[in-house]
Amino acid sequence: MGADAVVKGTRIEGTCKVHMVPSGSGTAPAGPRKFSAPIKNGTIASVLIGGREAAVIGASGTTDLPGTHDGIVDGPFASPTARVGRVLSGSPTVLIGGQMAATTASAATCCVEPFERFRDAVGSVLIG
């Protein structure tokens, strides 16, 4: 059975656990930080699902939760604080604009870590 379609505005959600903040001895783990990024980039404008542009592999968005990444100072030994969520996989059987369609079964990242879930996908359209 297929999975719900991911579209522009669907949120990539998770928890960032690898960031650092300043401390007396240099840097220290920042602790878990919530992550929620609406997909805004890399969608296919010519294909609408539920009135919104279809998302495909590589679609991305930047977290918009206020204050959740303030004070982060990841050093050269860590991945940069990109604050970007990105769809990493898609349906191998459904192509949109020549690219794999993103579904709620797709893999994604939040900053540099695996995400936990997609929110606000189109449940009336199944892909795959």
What this model shows, in words?
It is a single chain. This protein is 0% helix and 51% strand. The strands form five sheets. The chain has a five-stranded antiparallel sheet with strand order 6-7-8-11-12, with no helix packed on it. A three-stranded antiparallel sheet has the order 5-2-13, with no helix packed on it. By secondary structure, the protein is mainly β. The N and C termini lie close together (7 Å). It is built from no helices and 14 strands. A hairpin with a 2-residue loop joins β3 and β4.
Keywords:
mainly beta; 128 residues; 14 strands; single chain; five-stranded antiparallel sheet
State the helical fraction.
under 10%
Strand content: over 45%
Mean pLDDT: 84
What structural category arises from helix and sheet content?
A: mainly beta
Largest sheet: 5 strands, antiparallel
Number of strands: 14
Count, helices: 0
Low-confidence stretches: none
Calculate Rg over CA atoms. 16 Å
Within the largest sheet, what's the order of strands? 6-7-8-11-12
The topology string of helices and strands comes to EEEEEEEEEEEEEE
Terminal CA distance: 7 Å
Q: What spatial form do the alpha-carbon principal axes imply?
A: elongated
Short description:
This protein is elongated. It has strands spanning 3-5, 11-16, 20-23, 26-29, 33-38, 41-49, 52-62, 84-87, 95-96, 99-100, 108-110, 113-114, 117-119, 122-127. The chain has no helices and 14 strands.
